[in-house]
Design goal:
Strand content: over 45%
Order of helices and strands: EEEEEEE
Number of helices: 0
Strand order of the largest sheet: 3-2-1-4-5
Number of domains: 1
CATH architecture: Beta Barrel
Structural class: mainly beta
Length: 82
């Protein structure tokens, strides 16, 4: 029987994420930015589809680039769901 050698695993670098939480104070779809607590963050246009000024959100940043923006609480029929 011929022995098989498994391919070597690729090494990768883990980059820690940073998080910013707060209220959306402005959205600029032309520049693809969202302003949270007075600071503007560049995002992809797709991230802005479900976000509106006044929303309480958490942004996830990796290597100083925004990779996610999600509501921190969802209002459903006058109830807050977290």
């Amino acid at each position: 029987m011929v022995g098989l050698v498994a391919p070597m695993a690729q090494a990768f670098t883990v980059v820690p994420a940073s998080y910013v939480s707060g209220v959306v104070t402005a959205i600029d779809t032309d520049r693809a930015t969202v302003t949270v607590e007075g600071r503007a963050y560049t995002v992809t246009p797709a991230m802005l589809t479900d976000i509106a000024p006044g929303a309480d959100v958490t942004l996830t940043l990796v290597a100083m680039k925004t990779v996610a923006i999600v509501p921190t609480a969802l209002e459903v029929e006058d109830e807050i769901v977290e």
